[in-house]
Specification:
Elements: E1 4-10, H1 18-26, E2 31-36, H2 45-53, E3 59-62, H3 65-68, H4 72-84, E4 88-91, E5 96-97, H5 101-134, H6 149-159, H7 162-169, H8 173-181
Parallel strand pairs: 1-2, 1-3, 3-4
Antiparallel strand pairs: 4-5
Helix pairs in contact: 4-5, 6-7, 6-8, 7-8
Length: 183
């Protein structure tokens, strides 16, 4: 039998991890990884460290599912990493426990629903993009540039220096050099 490993997260520095830590300790977690970071961020060092730390037979415990991930797509990815390592998941407040057949079924149903929603959303986006392209509109070309190379060249001629042209145009000197080197 492996270890119980806890993961706690709050979104901002002003929030406290104490309530989550207390629940995880009461559940028997031997080690708790905790961080104060938004769940929407992909760079969560403690989550990455926890995923690296766990071994086959371990059980990852979280107080609530949204502490582990903010989107179902993200949750599915994290769950797949745990499954590949043969690590189970317990969500204390929501009664999900993949160490039991019922818990695995509940988790997989939630995952299937999330994947279905993601695929529907993707299909709608693809349909919208195809519609725009059929009308001759390229949806992903970005916004048009504010300045052209000719505008910068003219400003350099008028002012006499690249630094002066940058000031006149309200852009950085790096932008002046970048635009002048453009073809």
């Amino acid at each position: 039998m492996g270890q119980q490993i806890g993961y706690a997260r709050v979104s901002s520095a002003g929030q406290s991890l104490d309530a989550q830590r207390d629940k995880l300790e009461a559940a028997g977690c031997e080690r708790i990884f905790a961080e104060k970071r938004s769940g929407r961020r992909s760079d969560r060092p403690e989550l990455a460290a926890m995923l690296d730390y766990v071994r086959e037979g371990d059980v990852v415990c979280v107080s609530k599912l949204d502490r582990l991930a903010r989107s179902m797509h993200d949750l599915i990815g994290t769950a797949k990493k745990l499954e590949e390592k043969k690590v189970d998941l317990r969500v204390l407040d929501q009664g999900i426990d993949t160490t039991t057949p019922e818990g695995r079924m509940t988790f997989h149903i939630l995952g299937a629903v999330a994947e279905f929603e993601w695929e529907i959303r993707k299909a709608r986006i693809d349909e919208s993009v195809a519609s725009l392209r059929a009308k001759g509109i390229e949806p992903f070309k970005g916004r048009p540039p504010k300045l052209r190379k000719e505008d910068v060249e003219r400003a350099v001629e008028e002012v006499g220096t690249k630094a002066g042209a940058a000031k006149k145009l309200g852009i950085s000197r790096d932008s002046v050099y970048r635009l002048l080197s453009a073809r």
